[in-house]
Amino acid sequence: MKSEIQIDLVSTEEIASQIFFVLQCTVLNGAVQKGQTMTLPFSSGVDMTIPVDEVENAVDQPGKIRVKVLCEDLSDVEFLRGLNLEGDVLAVY
Q1: Which residue has the higher pLDDT, 59 or 3?
Q2: DSSP of 76-88, one letter per residue?
Q3: Which of 14, 43, 52, 66 shows its CA 20 to 30 Å from the CA of 90?
Q4: Would the pLDDT of 8 be above 90?
Q5: 15-63: pLDDT as tens digits
Q6: For residues 62 and 55, is the Cβ–Cβ distance under 8 A?
Q7: In DSSP terms, which residues pair with 36 in a beta bridge?
Q8: What is the pLDDT of residue 55?
């Protein structure tokens, strides 16, 4: 089932030598769970999918969640940050 999230804030997080691309977002419909995939706009008419590795409630932000994507290295994080996703609505499957 398709869910939709609106991206409020993009950040990164390092935990025990793991690097995460973090999307703080509002769930517009449906639910988001670990193991699902998100569709990201890559270029005109071309999308890419990435896995949802972790989902948590945003601290002090009722109704907001943080979706985390584990990255291999900083170049992956920089690539994803370069997509400028803040304000975008993404599909999650």
Answers
A1: 3
A2: HHHHHHTT--TT-
A3: 14
A4: yes
A5: 998 999 999 999 999 999 999 999 998 877 889 999 999 999 998 888 8
A6: no
A7: none
A8: 97
pTM: 0.91
Output the CA–CA distances (angstroms, integers) from residue 60 to 21, 39, 54, 66, in the order listed. Answer: 20, 27, 18, 12
Q: How far apart are the C-alpha atoms of 6 and 16, rounded to whole Å?
A: 28
Could you tell me the domains of the chain?
Answer: 3-92 (2.40.30)
**CA-wise closest residue to 23 among 74, 60, 69, 91:** 69
For residue 22, the tally of other CB atoms under 10 A from its CB is 18
How do beta strands 18-29 and 64-71 pair? antiparallel
